[in-house]
Structure formats: C-alpha cells, structure tokens
C-alpha cells in the first residue's frame, strides 16, 4: 500500500506573490499595488522568517497582534490598516477555498474590526471649478487641468477608465464604456453612460 503523500506546506509570502501575479495578469494593477503594500507590511511584521512563514499559522492571536503592530509600530492610518487587514483576510479565504490550507477550527479573523473614521468631504465649489477651468495655464499644468475637467464633465470617470477609453466608445454625444473593476472583470453587458458635452454653468 502506497504511503499517502504529505501535503506541501503553503507559505504565506508565496501565496501572496501568486495572488499579485494573478491580478497583474488580469490587468488589475491598482489592486495588485495594494496587495504588494499589504505583503510588505506583513513581511515587516513577521521579520526575518517572512519568507518561510506557513499560512496555516495565521491564527486569531497572530492576526490581533498584526493589527496592533500596524497601528502602534508601523504607524499606519486606520484606513490603510483596514485595507491591509482585509487583503490578508482575502488571501487567507482564497487559500482555504482552493484547499491550499486547512481551515482553522476558529476563524482567525472573527470579531476583529478596525474602526475607520468617515472620510471628510473635500469637494470643490462651483466657483472654484469655474476658476480652474478658466485659468490661464500652459504646458503640463494645462494638460493636467484639461484631464481633470474631462473627468469632471464625464461625471467622475476614473482615470484608469479614461486611459483605456477607445474612440469607438464615443458616439452620439455620449461616452459609452464599461467601468474597470479593481478585482472583478468589467461588465460589458451594462456599460456606464456619461455625457461628454454638458457645459458647466
């Protein structure tokens, strides 16, 4: 009778890198960048053994200690700490879903929350937008202003959507495009429509 093959130990850092590579392959570069930052944060927390730290050792106390480390030692803002925490949780959940690691008896992310204060609104007034629109600028400043105004007129289009915009998506006075999602493929069946020619008063 053949001996059962021992399951290979999955390393947290290796699985992190695999997820980053997958995101880059699918052109989710913004999310990939966040995953890279989260990975570096985890590596700083684990220290010298970060390259050989098993994912199965991500338990409740370890996660709690990591959250404290981010806020007290790494001096991260609540929003950044929460972002990295959620990324770590997503990485763990994916490993469990793919049966790459056995699920812990007690979910390590249970009852752990990071309080994130609401973001203060920093919207420009209509007068300020008009002043920016009419400013006498040249060179790169003028180009940056024009890009900003285009995004504004397009009802808050994301820069990445502008970067990927095709000429064929502009017709009839409208821009018909599919929003780029950070971790999900764009839904082309329900494109978002934005007016391109609506003037500011």
Describe the structure.
The protein is mainly alpha-helical. The chain folds into three domains: 88 residues; 31 residues, no CATH class; 27 residues, no CATH class. 48% of the residues lie in helices and 5% in strands. The protein is built from seven helices and three strands. It has a three-stranded antiparallel β-sheet, with no helix packed on it. Strand 1 and strand 2 form a beta hairpin.
Task: Sum this structure up briefly.
By secondary structure, this protein is mostly helical.
Average residue pLDDT: 82
Q: How many helices does DSSP assign?
A: 7
Major sheet: arrangement of strands? 1-2-3
Note the gap between the termini.
82 Å
Strand content: under 5%
Number of strands: 3
Model regions low in confidence, pLDDT < 50 over at least 5 residues: 182-199
3D shape: elongated
Strand/helix succession: HHHHHHHEEE
Helix content: 40-55%
Radius of gyration: 23 Å
Number of domains: 3
What kind of sheet is the major sheet? 3 strands, antiparallel
Key structural traits:
single chain, 201 residues, mainly alpha, three-stranded antiparallel beta sheet, 7 helices, 3 strands, elongated, disordered C terminus
Walk me through the topology.
Blueprint: H1 12-25, H2 29-46, H3 60-73, H4 78-97, H5 126-134, H6 139-153, H7 159-164, E1 170-171, E2 174-177, E3 192-195
Antiparallel strand pairs: 1-2, 2-3
Helix pairs in contact: 1-2, 2-4
């Amino acid at each position: 009778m053949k001996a059962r093959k021992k399951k290979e130990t999955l390393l947290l850092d290796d699985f992190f890198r695999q997820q980053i590579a997958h995101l880059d392959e699918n052109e989710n570069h913004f999310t990939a960048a966040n995953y890279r930052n989260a990975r570096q944060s985890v590596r700083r927390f684990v220290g010298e053994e970060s390259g050989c730290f098993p994912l199965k050792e991500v338990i409740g106390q370890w996660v709690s200690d990591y959250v404290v480390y981010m806020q007290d030692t790494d001096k991260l803002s609540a929003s950044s700490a929460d972002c990295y925490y959620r990324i770590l949780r997503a990485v763990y959940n994916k490993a469990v879903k793919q049966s790459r690691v056995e699920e812990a008896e007690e979910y390590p992310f249970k009852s752990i929350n990071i309080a994130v204060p609401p973001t203060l609104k920093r919207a420009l007034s209509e007068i300020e937008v008009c002043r920016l629109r009419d400013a006498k600028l040249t060179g790169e400043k003028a180009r940056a202003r024009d890009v900003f105004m285009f995004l504004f007129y397009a009802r808050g289009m994301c820069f990445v959507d502008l970067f990927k915009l095709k000429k064929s998506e502009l017709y009839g006075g409208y821009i018909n495009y599919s929003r780029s999602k950070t971790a999900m493929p764009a839904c082309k069946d329900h494109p978002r429509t934005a007016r391109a020619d609506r003037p500011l008063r």
